[in-house]
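Sequence in, structure out. First:
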Amino acid sequence: MLESKTPAQEARLSLLDLLRTRFEPSLRDLIPIYEEPTKAIYRVQRSAGFPWVVRLFPPARPLERVLGDAAVLRHVASHGIRAERVVLASDGESCVELNGRGVLVTEWIEGTRLTRSAEGLRRIGEVVGRLHALPPVPSGDPLLRRRAGALPASDLPFGLRCLDGVAGRVPEGYRAEYEALRAALLGTRDCEELPAEAWGLIHNDCHLANALRTPGGEVAFFDWDGSGQGPRVAALGVLLYSCAVQAPGDPLIPSDLRRVDHLLDGYCRHHTLSRAEAGLLPDAMRFRPAVVAARELAASINRGDPPVPKQRAQPWAARYTEANAAAARAQDILLR
């Protein structure tokens, strides 16, 4: 008797058929990197040549947004910034559809994760500095003019909604953390008041875990699907936090303010911030960890997890204080 396939497996087979029809008939297989029923990322095994990466986006993501992903990748590549290179379909299209879902194919980037060495931090700072120094994109280009995703102005309200959803069910052992997180979210500025010249094309998730060092020594970022126009200080804040304090997926390690110096040494070779932007660095560094902590706290309450305040405090409360110290160090450097 044949085993029934899950919806994700069925989608994978349909995607492989699509890729063989629209890109390369001899493609061998798709290896899941991340696979859920609504979205997935696969390594594309080819009969010859370097592997590809294919992203199958959720049905709710408009095709225009996927076209924008491809436009951003082509744009930064045209300015010498190493990123995933778009693989065009056989008819020259930069993205295709599968049952109403956007599909984007890019070249696989060979590389290793960057370390927090002085050289590694300087190099990653240089790449982001070069990105932030790019001239404004054409005003009439809707794909490049799109707004970046997961900016403080959208993330902070999301964190508050997570807390509001459990407001009447917070166990006493979680109450202090709940109130502290709520105050942190309400007290964080969203950077929206910055003037137009402080905005530009950003990688909104440019943290240490989304960068690789290629065999040739270049630094390449991946996961550009949230990129777009945004306040540059918000992106720099995410990068500084991940390098100086904590990066996604990392074990807890002591923060080190010297990492701020090394990263900004590279960044400021190409771009610097105004006094108004530098004044918002503490908010730019703190918003993401507070939002993630609010989401996780709400999930714990919804699951009925027993409170463990001492263990729970370290991932965000102590790191929040360290983020303030790192932001102050960055401000000292930028405002000399």
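Second:
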Amino acid sequence: MWSITRIENDHQTHFLLDDNAYGLTRGDTTPWSDTYCVHMVGGETPQVTGQAQSVDEYAQAKVNDTLDIAAYAGAPIRESDGTLFGVICGLDPQEQSDLPRIGTTLNALGGMLEVALAADREHRRLAAALEGAQQESTTDALTGVGNRRAWEQWLERLENDYGELADPTVVAVIDLDDFKAFNDGPGGHAAGDEALRSVASAIAQCMRDGDHVARIGGDEFGVILRDCSTAKAPEVIERIREAIAATGVEASIGWESLRVSTSVDECVRCADAAMFARKGRGRHHDPASSA
């Protein structure tokens, strides 16, 4: 089996693979600490060995509980800043005495993948800059954040980007609680409009480079959090909730992490369902879970 894997959320996920030995499929994951690759990337073990069980770290790896591995080959794939993107690795249930000869080729392939990754990152950066120049037609006139058209464009791009790179990403849906009271109060719709502007500004201030916020309904907002792991998401979501609360408005927020095995549309539906579930349980919710 040969696989290009993505390392995120402390798991190694099979991203592209050719598996005739183990029955694994795209999206299958293994805890990073259980793998052979964690030792290879750390420089503790040989990159290529035709007798994997003769290497102590490989013989003791927990992945052996589920996979019969007799031969192993791996090379890291790094971002241009040196951080780990993933690993190209090969596994075989049979020992392979001549496997070490592919080490040079494997490293060369890893280097080529790193060059392609850097070029792709730069292409996406330039595309994002162009989008910024075209932003006026996709800006909500009232709040200054993205409008529904922008949201749909961002989701379409996210589907393509995640399908190619699987960068950790979270989608959140935000619905303002009891917002009708603003429009029905003494200030009328003007008070409601001012509250929407304040909320949009509060959310936007929580965004980092690459994140997106859009007003996708009357009092509903959508957020895309790039480079945000499942473990990190509760902290970010809570920060957004507190920023909204500081404007005098309470909100119900549902979120979901993208996964290789699901589509962006499914992720949005799950986030929307989580938001409605929270709204049904009251205003104060634990952000630690997306469900």
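Remark: The domain at 139-281 is CATH 3.30.70.270 (Alpha-Beta Plaits).
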